[in-house]
Write a structure and sequence with these properties.
The protein is mainly α. It folds into two domains: 255 residues, Up-down Bundle (Growth Hormone, Chain: A), CATH 1.20.1250.20; 56 residues. 41% of the residues are buried. One of its GO terms (cellular component) is plasma membrane. This is Major facilitator superfamily transporter permease.
Length: 348
Amino acid sequence: MFNVAMAVFPPQELGSTTGICSLVIMFATAIGPTLTGLILAKLSWHWIFWLFVPILLIALIFELKFLINVDQLSKPKVDVLSLIFSALGFGLIVIGFSLAADKGWTSPFVLLCLLIGIVVLTIYITKQLRIPNPILNFRIFKKEAFFKGTLLVMIDFAMILSAMFIVPQFIQKGMRIPVALAGLIMLPGGLINAFVSAIAGRLYDNYGVKKIAIIGFIIAILGSFMLTRVSPKCSVLYITISLCVLMIGCPLAMSPSQTHALNALEVKENADGSTIINTFQQIVGAIATAVATSLLGLGTAAVHGHNAAVAFTNGTHYGFYFTIVLAIIGLLVSLSLKKETKSKDVQL
């Protein structure tokens, strides 16, 4: 989607365009937990996936009828070995981190998946840097704006995923609120995330990335700190406001950072940049969820002599300490951003 947007709209409108794209994506993630909670309140978890079927069929019909190619097809020669290395390397890393929270970080199977994945991925990236027509052009990381912008997107994405993973569990296990109501409590924060994403895109067009990203991470630090103060007896209003503050800061930093990264690329690099960001988000998502789960368990186990709600609340605090650390790192990277300039093309 972002690659199409970059091909259709001029660079000076890329911020607003990226913001609208983010609005669509974040709106889906906003209503997801709420709908899931309502479904689970009445039906089994299988229905979550059955309800995907009509939605996907509608999307397929729209794609066949309305979607057109905006770029000329280059039909490059595909290196089959690179495809295998890519699927194997990225897949094993995601599997390893996904299973780490359940099996433990010292599990032989988890360590084996991560080790093989890292080795295969190293071979894959080395190969991409040497062949004339790589599947992913990792040379674009030589552009400082793309590197830092992508790094900020990954940090921000990890913050959002860890928060959206921890908060609903705390509402259910810490505050003892039913799953359907937990989804409704999550809705305001998700909606704010979606609409701030669109506003942040417009702000990027007017003010650039640095100021907006700095403000966004500062607000995210505040929201994360507020979430470290939750307790089993805290009000629903407090948890809702805390999540909303975090969901103002995260997209305020994320949307401009992604635009900053993609805007540093030449036209022929757009597809590589968009694909790299999307691919890395899947890996970062698995890592963030695994770390948050581990910290949640560690904090819960650290409390003795109290009821389960108090113990789980302590685990929640551990999880949001992780979010604060990520936000501080993001703030430091934001402070090092330079004024936007169009980078020179890298040699393919």
